[in-house]
Amino acid sequence: MAVTMDDLPLNTASRTGTAELERITTRLLAQLRTAGVPVTAFVNEGKLAVKGRRDAERVRQLKRCLDAGIELGNHTFAHKSQNDVPAEEAKEDIRKGKRTIDELYAERGGRPRWFRHPYLQTGRDSATRNAINAYLDSLGYRIAPVTVDNSDWLFAAAYENAAAEGDSAGMRTIAGAYVPYMLECVRYYERMADTLFGRPVAQTLLMHANRLNGDHAAELFRRLRNEGYSFVTLDEALRDPAYASPDTFFGKGGISWLHRWAWTRGHRGAFFAGEPDVPEFVKNRAGTKYD
Ligand SMILES: [Zn+2]
Question: How high is the pLDDT of residue 289?
Answer without folding.
Answer: 53
